[in-house]
Amino acid sequence: MFKKVIAIMTATVLAASMLVACGGSTGASSSEPAAQEAAEPAAEEAAEPAAEPAADAAGEAAAATDGDLSTKKVGVCIYQFSDNFMTLFRTELEKYLIEKGFAKENITIVDGANDQATQSGQIDSFIADGVDVLIINLVNSSSASTVTDKVVAANIPLVYINREPAADEQQRWADNNWNVCYVGCDARQSGTYQGEIIADLGLDAVDFNKNGKIDYIMIKGDPENVDAQYRTEFSIKALTDAGFEVNKLDEQVGMWDQVKGAELVANSLSQYGNDIEVVFCNNDAMALGALQSIQSAGRKVGTDIYLVGVDALTEVVEYVISGDITGTVFNDHFAQSHNAADAAINYITGAGNEHNIQCDYKKVTKDNAQEILDSLK
Known about the structure:
Number of helices: 16
CATH superfamily of the largest domain: Response regulator
Structural class: alpha/beta
Strand order of the largest sheet: 1-12-6-5-4-2-3
Largest sheet: 7 strands, parallel
Shape: elongated
Strand content: 15-25%
């Protein structure tokens, strides 16, 4: 009888401590986005995100999974199933959630079809269904405040992924001590790495027309998306920081789409011809489209033009190995999806999270492409 009383008292103390922890952290990294927006970060800062290390979040979740997660319901909103990278992400996310103890039938992943109204309806349905946590890849990052308000009002923890809400929105989470966080990579780092891949080749190798400049075209993703903005800016900043003079011949919006990327690059090649020395693409899908148009125009990557993307899709990494694409940047869907799941677990179990959890990108060139490819299989 005495042992039973002690056990009940211990459980009560543990439950109280869990409730205290449930509010989440308001540590220094939660205000990091606001500080970054106030002053333009240097390229080296972009390459070393100061937010909560991903490994710490994973460790907290690993220590907090003693509870039964099999009855917990997870709602996952993906902006568009047809996106190559998000297909890798959601597949790995579901697999990892199941490994951590969630029942497959309690994990619901829905396609926003790249329409914010559709996604908003899906979020409403998840709230009505009483899910225990929401993981959301926004269609429009500008909708974050509206989405946050409705989810917080429903007392459901929220993990944003891949498309980062604005700094002032993240500051709201910290100021109100809400169970809301963002898990992703710093897009400035990915842009910086793209530029460095080209800079490392040297001006003599890149300057085919011998005008002393790097003449380039830029194929952007969704202009509203912070990843597209930062990759566009910091890829070129890496070149100028390295002392190169650059000349932008064209900049077009490809909306992350392979077919659109092929069309835009074909048009640019028709207009600017051999003056184009580098094609920057904000993601690998558009880079694959660009490669089709480069080859159709009779150009050869590595011989008279260079091409870089972001994501490290398997097909693109294979092209890096063969020399048909100059390089890409590994957008680590393993780390991001695992840390998103770990953050969800932390909220469910009461461990809490930092408001911004960052993972690192990795440059992919011919030197390490086989290693990256092996990790993807």
